[in-house]
Every structure is written in C-alpha cells, then in structure tokens.
Amino acid sequence: xxxxxxxxxxxxxxxxxxxxxxxxxxxxxxxxxxxxxxxxxxxxxxxxxxxxxxxxxxxxxxxxxxxxxxxxxxxxxxxxxxxxxxxxxxxxxxxxxxxxxxxxxxxxxxxxxxxxxxxxxxxxxxxxxxxxxxxxxxxxxxxxxxxxxxxxxxxxxxxxxxxxxxxxxxxxxxxxxxxxxxxxxxxxxxxxxxxxxxxxxxxxxxxxxxxxxxxxxxxxxxxxxxxxxxxxxxxxxxxxxxxxxxxxxxxxxxxxxxxxxxxxxxxxxxxxxxxxxxxxxxxxxxxxxxxxxxxxxxxxxxxxxxxxxxxxxxxxxxxxxxxx
Length: 324
Known about the structure:
Structural class: alpha/beta
Strand order of the largest sheet: 3-5-4-6
Radius of gyration: 28 Å
Shape: elongated
Order of helices and strands: HEEHHHEEEHHHHEHHHH
Helix content: 40-55%
Strand content: 5-15%
Largest sheet: 4 strands, mixed
C-alpha cells in the first residue's frame, strides 16, 4: 500500500482532530481524554501498549506451526457464532484474535483509528512525531485495522459488532459508512504490517504449548486460575486410562480363572469365557491402537499441510522478488 492512509478523508468516521486543529485547541487522543497529543513520548508509550505485541513478534517466525499461514484466516463475527464461540472483549493487543475452545478474544477499534488526521499527522508523518517507535506502531496498527475487514464482512457482522455488550465499533456509525471506510483495507499487504498480522486467528492451546520453548515461559495465557480447575482437566484422561486397565485386568482374571478350572461342569461355558476374555483384550488393543494412529495421522496431516503452505509462501515470495 506504499505507506498511504488506509482510507480517504471523505470516508473517515471521526473528525474530532479536524475541529481541534481549526480551533487551535490542546487536543487529546479521540476516545482517550487522558492522552495528550502534545506529549509525543507519552503518546508513543500509549500506542505501543495499544498495538504492539512483543511476545507474538518473537513467536512470528514460528507461527506457521500454530496457525494457517494466511492473514485472511479470520472468520467473520456471525461465523464465530456459528462455530459456537463466545466473543470476549479484550484491550490487550497480544490477545486479539486468540481463540480457545468456545471463546475468541477481540480488541475493539478505538475512535482515533477512524481519524484521517491522526493517521496523517502521527502514524504516517514525515516528521516522525512518535520517534523510532513510529514504524513499529504503524505496522501493528495497519495489521490490526486490516483484521476488521474480515471480522465485519456482512451487515449481520456489523450489528453484532455494535451490540451493547461488545461495542467493537462506535454505535453512531452506519453500515454504508463503514463499508466505504474499509473499502481500501485489502490494499494493505503483509509487507506493510507487523509479522504477527501475516496470520489471522491463533489457537491458544498451541500458543501455550510453544511458549515453553520460544518464550521460555510456562504459558502464553493462563487459562486456569484455581487449583481445582487446573487439575480437573486431568480427570477425563485418567478415568479413561483407569477404565482401560480395569477392563484388561478383568479379562485377564477371567482367563486365569478358566485355566484353573480343570473339572468344569460346563465345558462350553468355560470355552465361551476364555474366548470372550481374549476377544475383550483384542478389542481393547484395537481401540487403543486406533486412537493412537488417529492422533498420529491428525498431527502428521496438520504438519504436512503447514510445511506445504510454508514452502508455497516462500516460493511465491521468491517469485515476486525475482519478477520485481
């Protein structure tokens, strides 16, 4: 997109800074009255906290192992509902579009990102008012803004976003206005955004797993805050293992008991008991083996898909570089 503003001034949805400039007022960041635009250091600190996610930037070279390698891998809001996910509001940029089980975390669009003057004067200014952090903030803000092209694709998504319990976008905006506002978002390329936003939704369970190796942290986001909730996740697997062991021991006990009966009054019953115990052991072995093979197949299939996608992406980048 060549470092241009992602929307025209005619399509901006917040003009508070236009008014402040005309009246020569000491302006604050729209929607953030405590953040003064006359304090560049404080403004840079605030915007860094609002958009930058150092953890995810560090993990970015390895995100191909955790997510589909496409910035378009973002389900619209109505489809999040179809998937049975609860939309949870977060103000933490590192959690934007992170999902786990039946929840997805989404950061609302702040008012100042709707302002043409804000983009022109601060994020894309030739005078670099945000200092050496300006480029980093701009790339993160562009990537974050682009995600809303995919989150709100239909009018139904738009009204979900304006729900009183979410308010992902301001409620005074109309659907036609928003459509005009986002019309240039697809022109934002992966090279214009921070590395994290070359990907879309991120699965929390995988982030927590790989955080141990990449971030040297026990987790990316703690899910269980109570001991009871933490240990309860082991109950199901442990009961399954105990049940399998109990079945195996019971079948073996039947077989041993049959062997010990030398003068069985019902030889036919002894034979049936023996074959039943052997069949039970065989059936348990087949079920357990099938589950293990299914798990191996699913993991291998995901890794093969991820590696192929990575190779395609690198090949495309190489071809684009060669052609240019």
